[in-house]
Automatic annotation (TrEMBL):
This is DUF4383 domain-containing protein. It comes from Yinghuangia soli. The chain crosses the membrane at residues 16-37, 57-75, 82-103, 109-130. Residues 151-177 are annotated as: Disordered. Keywords: Membrane, Transmembrane, Transmembrane helix.
Amino acid sequence: MKLHDELPVDHRLSQVYRFGAGAVGVFLLVFGILALVDQLDFFGTTGKDVAGLSANGALGILSVAVGLILIAGAFRGGNFASTLNITVGILFVLSGFVNLALLGKDANVLGFTMSNVIFSFAVGLVLMVCGMYGRVGSALPHDNPYWRSRHAHQAAREDTARQTKARGLPGGPVNAH
């Protein structure tokens, strides 16, 4: 199944994907720029407070890069933004776990603190929810392009019944399974 071909370009779900990617992208871009303006140590294991989070130069550059990628995804929209949100969200959650294990160690090259770990988990979940909205679930409406792709035979039967009814021909009930 190809998920990237299912959603029409102008579908209303695209706005959720775009907003999620854009909002997080702008925050990360601003955070990264503020970290870089402060000229922090590049790989300092104890970062400096920037916008309530610990940062160093490496985290600043990484934040700018990820922010720009998410903003580009917001401009592109559609399934690309959805898939990007899910992927980056998963990476944020994984980063939270990895950096949680590195707290207080010399390998903490991004200068994470517990607030950064919590932020990483929260942003990861927000991005995943924005990316999965209307795409994953057991109660998707039957006009949803993702539902239609996963249930092609039933969607075809429903379309045939709808067309038959619209033409005034006897069609009988549509099988729900």
